[in-house]
Structures are given as C-alpha cells and as structure tokens.
Amino acid sequence: MSWDWAEASEPQLLTPGARIMSANKGWWVPPEGEDSVSQKFLRKTRESPLVPAGLGGCLAVAAYRIYRLKARGSTKMSIHLIHTRVAAQACAVGAVMLGAVYTMYRDYVKRTAQNPGEK
C-alpha cells in the first residue's frame, strides 16, 4: 500500500449539509437555505444599523489617534494609549445608547401613536 501525499489533506470541519466547492481551493459553501456571510452581515446591519456605526467610530478614533501618535508631544505613550481607548469606547457606548433610545422609541412611542385608544 503506497501513501500519496496529494490525496492526504487536513480534516475539514463542516456543518451538516455544507460542502466544499473545489477540493483544490477549499472554499466553504453554506448549506442549502442558509445565507452567505455577506448576506448575513447585510441582514444584521439592517436589523441594528448602529452596531456598524459604533464599530466604524471605534476604528476611526483608533486610526486618528495612531496617525497623531508622533505629534503627541511630551505625553507618555501609556497616557496616549489610554486616551485612545477611552475615546474608542465612548464611540461604542454612544452607539449602544443611541440604539437603546431608538429601540425604546420604536417600541413605546410609535406603538402608542399607532394605537391611541388602547391602554
């Protein structure tokens, strides 16, 4: 019995129903009836649009602070990094708070406006 290295490959973890399109490429294809990664991302973005906004804000703050790293003057590196983290967290928390306020508005204010006679 001879061993052919071309036939041997690493085991591939797949969900039931998933398949590999091409053995050479190793591309993963979702099972029938499931969304692809991009479709799932777009659906989740439509469901909660402030999550990508918060993530974008965090990335923008981090990119700006990294860009301004050389112009920090006599500020210690640790202090600069702490300020960067706090600003990025403020974007994320702000997006979560806006999402919570919007959800409350949608659930309570719009619902009561649609059904004025009900209590």
Features:
single chain, 119 residues, mainly alpha, 3 helices
What would you note in describing this structure?
With 119 residues, this protein is mainly alpha-helical. The chain has a domain at 46-73 and 80-114. 56% of the residues lie in helices and 3% in strands. It has three helices and two strands; from the N terminus they run ββααα. The chain has helices spanning 37-47, 50-67, 77-114, and strands at 19-20, 28-29. Helix 2 (50-67) packs antiparallel against helix 3 (77-114). The protein is flat. The model has no long low-confidence stretch (mean pLDDT 76). Keywords: Membrane, Transmembrane, Transmembrane helix. The chain crosses the membrane at residues 50-67, 87-105. Its main location: mitochondrion. This is HIG1 hypoxia inducible domain family member 1B.
The largest sheet, given as strand count, sense and whether it forms a barrel, is:
2 strands, antiparallel
Structural category is: mainly alpha
Written as H for each helix and E for each strand, in order along the chain, the element string is: EEHHH
Unreliable segments of 5+ consecutive residues: none
Overall residue-averaged pLDDT value: 76
Shape: flat
What proportion strand? under 5%
Spatial ordering of strands, largest sheet: 1-2
Number of helices: 3
Assembly form of the protein: single chain
Radius of gyration over C-alpha positions, nearest whole angstrom: 24 Å
Please report the distance between the alpha carbons of the first and last residues.
Answer: 79 Å
**How much helix is in the residues?**
55-70%
GO biological process, one term: mitochondrial respirasome assembly
InterPro entries: Hypoxia_induced_domain (IPR007667), RCF1 (IPR050355)
Organism: Ailuropoda melanoleuca
Transmembrane segments: 50-67, 87-105
